[in-house]
Amino acid sequence: MKTGLVLEGGAMRGLFSAGVIDVMMEHGVEVDGIIGVSAGAAFGCNYKSRQAGRAIRYNMRFCKDKRYAGLHSLITTGDLFNAEFAYHVVPTEYDVFDGKTFEENKTEFVVVCTDIEKGLPVYHRIDRFDYDALEWIRASASMPMASNVVELEGMKLLDGGVTDSIPLRESERRGYKRNIVILTQPEGYRKEKLKLMPLAKLWLHRYPELVKAMAERHIMYNNQLDYVAEREKEGTAIVVRPDEKLPIGHTSHNADEMHRVYMIGRRKGEELCELKL
Fold first, then answer.
1. Is residue 121 helix, strand or coil?
2. pLDDT digits 0-9 by tens, 56-100
3. Is residue 34 helix, strand or coil?
4. Is 215 exposed, middle or buried (0-12, 13-18, 19+ CB in 10 A)?
5. Residues 206-225: what's their mean pLDDT?
6. 188 Ramachandran zone, left/alpha/beta (phi>0; psi -120 to 50)
7. 3-state secondary structure at position 199
8. 29-42: string of b/e by CB count within 10 Å (b at 16+)?
9. Reduced to 3 states, what is the DSSP secondary structure of residue 142?
10. What pLDDT score was predicted for residue 250?
């Protein structure tokens, strides 16, 4: 039976997931396929390149660098996380991504984006490490109202979490009947309707299908949580989640805060590996 790894997003909450998967790599846990959304895509690619520790390392290193992320980047470029520096300079110059290992590793790696003109999820498999691969990862993690639209293959794309936050069904559709699902919210969490919807309607009025998806995202997300719970009860999904709300927001410029969340993930990773996967 093929095993999939499903990684939801959550911006800086994704450092919890990074901690979990780093421990999995250190324990030699192999999976047949990975599907990641937003931060799950940005950090999950390191699993295929076998680079444990990379996600927390570069985030702590650059968290206070205005070239990387923050209000300065948002004002000057339109992207909260600087498109060029964060997604192209860092992985090719400062904390080099191992593209050779990524390409040689036969594990399927899929990112989820949102087609903002259709309001539908787009699933894109990445086999090669090149400029376009980094752009697909950037698109998956580009939050509406905090990012420029990413155009790839004739589509206008943004954050995959808007239309498929926890892509367990897609992983199963691809043949992975046993899945490890890493969530970044604790058990019992339920998403509420976006409070900024009035602003979203104004800001994104050119993309009514995207606005509709954002308005209904809490319904989609909570339904996905129910589906994950069903699969967990049946025994086809192993679910890893924090015990309580993670002590970090969507963004952070505090290296100690990042490290705490990462270590929470590592502890959960150790618990997971005790199951002798």
1. strand
2. 999 999 999 999 999 999 999 999 999 999 999 999 999 999 999
3. strand
4. middle
5. 97
6. left
7. helix
8. bebbbbbbbbbbbb
9. coil
10. 87
Give yes or no for a contact between 241 and 8, defined as CB atoms under 8 angstroms apart. Answer: no
For the record, the structure tokens of 58 come out as: 């570069």
Phi, psi values for residue 154, rounded to 5°: 80, 5
Do 240 and 251 touch, CB atoms closer than 8 A? no
Q: For 2-53, what is each residue's pLDDT tens digit?
A: 999 999 999 999 999 999 999 999 999 999 999 999 999 999 999 999 999 9
* Mean pLDDT taken over the chain: 96
Cβ atoms of 134 and 87 within 8 Å: the answer is yes
For residue 122, which phi and psi values (nearest 5 degrees)? Answer: -125, 130
Tokens of 266: 């590592």
Q: Please, which residues have CB within 8 angstroms of residue 251's CB and are 6 or more apart in sequence?
A: 11, 12, 69, 70, 80
Q: Please enumerate in sequence order all residues whose Cβ is within 8 A of that of 40, keeping only pairs 6 or more positions apart, or say none.
A: 6, 7, 8, 9, 10, 14, 17, 182
Of the candidates 28, 31, 27, 132, the residue with the CA atom closest to the CA atom of residue 7:
31
**CB 157: neighbour CB atoms within 10 A?**
24
In the chain, which residue ranges form alpha helices assigned H by DSSP? 14-26, 39-48, 54-62, 71-77, 83-84, 99-104, 131-140, 168-173, 197-203, 208-215, 217-234, 255-273
Angle at 83 between CA 53 and CA 39, to 5 degrees: 40
